[in-house]
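#dry-run=false #mode=assembly
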Amino acid sequence: MDFPTWMAAIQARTESALERFLPLATTAPHRLHHAMRYATLGGGKRIRPLLCHAAGEIFAGDATRLDVPACAVELVHAYSLAHDDLPCMDNDVLRRGKPTCHVEYDEATALLVGDALQTLAFQILAENGGTPEMIALLAQASGSRGMAGGQAIDLAAVGKALTVEELEFMHIHKTGALIRAAVLLGAHVGAADDKTLFALSHFAGRIGLLFQVVDDILDAEASTATLGKTAGKDAAQNKPTYVSLLGLADAKHMAVDLRRDAKAALAPLGVRARRLIELTDYIVDRKF
Amino acid sequence: MDFPTWMAAIQARTESALERFLPLATTAPHRLHHAMRYATLGGGKRIRPLLCHAAGEIFAGDATRLDVPACAVELVHAYSLAHDDLPCMDNDVLRRGKPTCHVEYDEATALLVGDALQTLAFQILAENGGTPEMIALLAQASGSRGMAGGQAIDLAAVGKALTVEELEFMHIHKTGALIRAAVLLGAHVGAADDKTLFALSHFAGRIGLLFQVVDDILDAEASTATLGKTAGKDAAQNKPTYVSLLGLADAKHMAVDLRRDAKAALAPLGVRARRLIELTDYIVDRKF
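#status=ok
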């Protein structure tokens, strides 16, 4: 199976599994369930589920079993977007080409949507064969010493001059922790040995940063390439980025280095890591 | 040990366990961790941990093991308060005699505090011997078909004429589900049999409603008894309550009936249910 076909298949099965795990909009409270589905379904590249399945396949993990952590991680991601878009955070009105949750519904509903999506992530893990170890892994990645902590650091950083090290610390928490959890949870389903887990953990650290560097580059290039459109969001909000700290050329060099390091971390796994290598290239080559 | 001594001991050990489970304020991100501790420590009657320990003691459950679900439920409760107090929800400025979390810190921090406290609840269960069954039980009680769902129903009910049945449906979700989880999680630690779990579940349903009816009565009596002070918050926000639907006298009758039913549900457990019976009386006799 070539990579685009594999990717489309995982995206389709993730959509279908999320459909199944989310409460029906015909179940009370209707508006909340409607909004939870709106915030989760029908959009997104599903990078985290792709990483989860790719890591699980290395150990011949069963795809149906992999759907569970893949969806749990994606639910945590969807919750974080609903909350990040709120007026007291990033105050975003558009997400994936649609009005954000609080614009389409209202602020209180978007708050509850995020709350309930987070709960659902732990619920589907606990109800579908997730072990306490896997649940702890997802919680550590999501909480105040993971993603939510990264958000707090991000808030505190607006308008401040950060060093590259401080920026890296922020992103390791804000986006890196959940990406790492996606990879490791997939490996857990496939019963990976400790040595392989170590290699995957190193890979996940590199790819988490790579993802962010590429995001910063795309944000900056969109603003310079298409004059007259809304300027780059990060620059507008005076948020430090790899581009603002390093300049565009060095940020691109950093992406090249991270891609090489990520692939090097997978070397011990040989051809079994094929999908993870393809995903690494996909993340970098999205647009530049 | 008499009841006040027992209660003080459980409250003290809960405070101490929460102190231990919460990240230190000296751990980065400092402001977030400081705010998480502010929102959780040093206040509250700890009704849910008391119910959890009382239920666990029936089966000689180990107190240190009971601290885990007791604190997990209390962390979910604390998260819900931080979010309920936000301007887009109840817009409250005072909680337990202190400024609410978003007043003391800021809205974005209060949002992240709630998010991270919820995560921590699942994390401490998963890291300290909680089974997937216990984690699923807490998630079901907290999510869109439990507490968060009750909040959504509450939001939709403002300014509307509800029937008593609709009001009961709302409270069974909003407060009842988590109270039931506190009782059943305690019983799980103590390895209760199915027959006893059924009795405890029935008890928990009654006590959840009882708790709300008493709250409504206290809210109404405070407003009539102390003229010149802020009027009852529920009436001011035009929220339906048992008092507004039934009148004060019938709401008090309802409390009497619920107390009787709750105790009757415990009858098969005999003297072992002593603390749960004492807690039932404590909940009713708090102020009237």
